[in-house]
Design brief:
single chain, alpha/beta, five-stranded mixed beta sheet, about 20% strand
Length: about 325
């Protein structure tokens, strides 16, 4: 009996010491560079943002944020590598709604579980989409597009950057909300897509200010509407989908956030989150983000996680109804 009590006491002391060491370690975080693995190519929108924010984080964290680009394989190279790292906050991945809320509904098998394997530790930004048509398109509003789609069932064409992309799923959402059916034309690259829209090769596409904005400013395409609940700063002349005669409160967006392997100590998550939010709130960062249609995502990790879960449920329903699959 005495041995059992001593063993129990020793075990309790050991656990307390381990917890104490873990707490101290988390509070002193970081003591070395933090790596951010990015599944996007160098020079892309997310890559540019993380490098810009990284300059601020270097000061906030007192350590360097090292950006490691590993594009390809649907982002699975990045996600698989980070999944195998310790849950200590030193290995992050910059992923978006496609990776963490959409892909699981498109593939029968995936090498990771976005809920069980990872935690969202710091939101970065969101971006909504515009409905983009040629500058010479006869349509002046979303109601014109819907009327044409209803009059020419499955003849109106829309393009996007691949089967199962957010834009593809978003179009299925618009079709469902308007009782229309249009013909999908997938493209391999964004420049090809928006060139095709500008020449009238395809009738329309969803695009962001970052992807389609240059053609818009060059007056080669026009934006019929913005798929957000309020107009976008810098594009206040573009109505929302609801204002342009489409479904009220129609919204199509994506978001980008830092994730880490599940189990990172709370104090470490808090440090990463607060430092990232401070960086995103700096005036020059907000200005540069707004210039390309990105909006700082100023919410707590728990709230951002709820958004990711809501997107998972929404995408599951749309993908199933539209029978979208990439397998």
């Amino acid at each position: 009996m005495q041995f059992t009590l001593k063993a129990s006491l020793l075990s309790a002391i050991t656990l307390a010491l381990v917890a104490s060491v873990a707490t101290v370690s988390a509070q002193s975080f970081p003591t070395k560079p933090v790596r951010a693995v990015v599944p996007f190519s160098a020079g892309s929108g997310p890559d540019s943002v993380v490098r810009m924010v990284g300059e601020k984080l270097n000061r906030e964290l007192g350590q360097q944020l090292v950006v490691d680009n590993k594009p390809g394989a649907n982002g699975w190279l990045t996600i698989g590598e980070v999944k195998r790292t310790p849950a200590d906050g030193y290995n992050l991945m910059l992923v978006d709604a496609t990776h963490m809320s959409l892909q699981q509904h498109l593939y029968k098998q995936m090498p990771f579980d976005p809920v069980k394997d990872f935690d969202l530790v710091a939101p970065l930004y969101t971006t909504n989409f515009f409905i983009v048509v040629s500058a010479n398109s006869p349509w002046k509003s979303v109601s014109d597009l819907i009327a044409a789609a209803k009059a020419k069932d499955n003849e109106i064409t829309y393009g996007n950057w691949g089967i199962g992309s957010v834009a593809h799923v978003g179009t299925a959402m618009l079709e469902s909300a308007t009782g229309t059916q249009m013909r999908h034309i997938p493209f391999k690259e964004l420049p090809q897509l928006y060139t095709a829209v500008s020449t009238g090769e395809v009738d329309w596409a969803f695009g962001t200010a970052a992807s389609a904005g240059p053609l818009y400013k060059a007056k080669k395409v026009k934006f019929l509407a913005y798929a957000g609940t309020k107009r976008l700063a810098g594009y206040t002349d573009v109505p929302t989908v609801g204002e342009a005669g489409g479904p009220n409160n129609f919204e199509l967006n994506t978001w980008v956030a830092f994730y880490a392997p599940k189990g990172v100590p709370k104090a470490t998550v808090d440090r990463l989150y607060s430092s990232t939010q401070k960086a995103m709130a700096e005036p020059d960062v907000k200005e540069r983000l707004n210039a390309v249609g990105f909006e700082p995502w100023m919410v707590a990790p728990a709230d951002a996680t709820k958004v990711a879960e809501a997107d998972r449920l929404r995408f599951a329903e749309v993908v199933k109804k539209a029978k979208i699959s990439v397998d």
